[in-house]
Amino acid sequence: MKFGTKVIHAGIEPDPSTGAIMTPIYQTSTYVQESPGVHKGFEYARTQNPTRHALQANLAALENAKEAISFASGLAAMDNILKMLKPGDEIISTNDLYGGSYRLMVKVYEKFGLKSHFIDMSDAQNVEDHINENTKLIWIETPTNPMLQIIDVAAITQIAKAKGVTTCVDNTFASPYLQNPLDLGADMVLHSATKYIGGHSDVIHGCVMTNDQAIADELKFLQNAAGAVPAPMDCFLILRGIKTLHLRVQRSCENARKIAEYLRGHAKVSKVYYPGFEDHPGHDIAAKQMKDFGGMVSFDLHENNYEAAEKILSHTHLFSLAESLGGVESLIGHPASMTHASIPVEERLKVGLTDSLIRLSVGVEDADDLIADLKSAIG
Ligand SMILES: *Cc1c(COP(=O)(O)O)cnc(C)c1O
Fold first, then answer.
1. Closest-CA residue to 186 (of 93, 100, 63)
2. How far apart are CA 365 and CA 373, in angstroms?
């Protein structure tokens, strides 16, 4: 089945009790048993829920995975991956990481004995140089947020495999429509389904996909044992959002390209970060591992201070000033004070995340209107 068919049909069966074409919201906490231990495969809703099962089957198909395990949020999904590690284990990750992932690794898990190293992963050799006998997990995010660096998933997973290190790719920014890390050799893929997969800015959700049965079994155990499960209503909303995933992402990519080109020609803009540009350092790898270059664009200003950025951030009308990304509506954000506020200043300046950097999540509106909105705000 190809992607556009999978989003509609994979894992979805008419409801066995009524034939309802859409998976019902099974809003129940428990299931009646005929006699002790005799039941229809459903005992308690933290452990099993038919709405969640349908969603997990659909999510697995999107990443060409055998299994998907859903959680209450992207960070809950990551939390459960980190729970598979032990004190003394070490993680290697990128120096341009989603702020919440950085916070979880450092501010939550350091005190449980996990050590995380944040390095430049755009050079695969640098990753190999940092692996030691305690390295148990390599955490890749590509394109990175908000600098839109590209990391070579195939090159790094190959190195990791040779050293027996598990890899996980946070594929939130690309979406499963543009990039499938399991096919490139990764052991796990994580999504904040809050973003492109849900796509309508109305639900928080996370998931992990894998083809490794031991990992899947452990995550299913943790999903039940630690209990960060998604609500049935949320599973329904994600399933509904997925049906247009390919259409939404395609339009976002088209709009993002036009906007990146517009910004690059603007006199007040000093730099545009967009992997679709041929002179972007990761362009060739992006072209190899992604179907298109995504809906995210970041840019910086010649007037390199917060005040200059603030003027733009508070004067757009179609681009709403908000955290998050991947919805049908366009968003504008200020990483230094919003999504990346928990990252130390020295760390963020190292990767170019200045006080004047602005990040756009380009939605599916008409590109001409979006460009006109930016034009009036930038001046
Ligand atoms: C939003 C986001 C997360 C966290 O997901 P939540 O659903 O907000 O918990 C993780 N990684 C990336 C890249 C994100 O953008």
1. 63
2. 12
DSSP H helices, 204-280, are 213-226, 232-242, 245-264
170 in ligand 1 pocket by Cβ < 6 Å? Answer: yes
Residue with tokens 């998604």: 230
Choosing among 3.40.640.10, 3.30.470.20, 2.40.30.110, 3.40.50.300, the CATH entry for 3-242 is 3.40.640.10
Cβ of 98 less than 6 Å from ligand 1: yes
pTM score, two decimals?
A: 0.96
Cα-to-chain-centroid distance, residue 368:
27
Name the active-site residue from 98, 102, 177, 262.
98
Q: Tell me which CATH homologous superfamily contains domain 246-378.
A: Aspartate Aminotransferase, domain 1 (3.90.1150.10)
pLDDT > 90? residue 348: no
Q: What distance in Å separates the CA atoms of residue 140 and residue 153, rounded to the nearest whole number?
A: 8
| Closest residue CA from atom 7 of ligand 1 | 74
**How remote is the CA of residue 9 from the centroid of ligand 1, in Å?**
26
Does residue 332 contact residue 299 with C-beta atoms inside 8 Å? no
- Would you say the CB of residue 356 lies under 6 angstroms from ligand 1? no
pLDDT per position as a tens digit, 155-203: 999 999 999 999 999 999 999 999 999 999 999 999 999 999 999 999 9
- List pLDDT tens digits, range 42-64: 999 999 999 999 999 999 999 99
pLDDT in tens, 106-153: 999 999 999 999 999 999 999 999 999 999 999 999 999 899 999 999
Residues 236/288, Cβ–Cβ less than 8 Å: no
Domain ranges, ordered by start, for the chain: 3-242, 246-378
